[in-house]
Amino acid sequence: MNTHQIQKPYLLMIGDMDDPGNAKTAFGLRDWAAEACIGQFRFTEKAVDLDLPDMTPGLAAVAGAKTLIVGIAPPGGQLPETWHAFLEGALKAGLDLAAGLHQRLSTIPALAECATALGRKIHDVRHYDARLAVGSGIRRAGKRLLTVGTDCALGKKYAALAIAKAMTAEGMKADFRATGQTGILISGQGIAVDAVVADFISGAAEALSPANEPDHWDIIEGQGSLFHPAYAGVSLGLLHGSQPDALVLCHDPSRKSLDSFPHMPVPRLEDAIAAHLSAARLTSPGVRFVGISLNTSAMTDEAAGETLAKSQACLKLPCVDPMRTGVDPIVEELKTFG
Amino acid sequence: MNTHQIQKPYLLMIGDMDDPGNAKTAFGLRDWAAEACIGQFRFTEKAVDLDLPDMTPGLAAVAGAKTLIVGIAPPGGQLPETWHAFLEGALKAGLDLAAGLHQRLSTIPALAECATALGRKIHDVRHYDARLAVGSGIRRAGKRLLTVGTDCALGKKYAALAIAKAMTAEGMKADFRATGQTGILISGQGIAVDAVVADFISGAAEALSPANEPDHWDIIEGQGSLFHPAYAGVSLGLLHGSQPDALVLCHDPSRKSLDSFPHMPVPRLEDAIAAHLSAARLTSPGVRFVGISLNTSAMTDEAAGETLAKSQACLKLPCVDPMRTGVDPIVEELKTFG
Question: pTM here?
Answer without folding.
Answer: 0.95
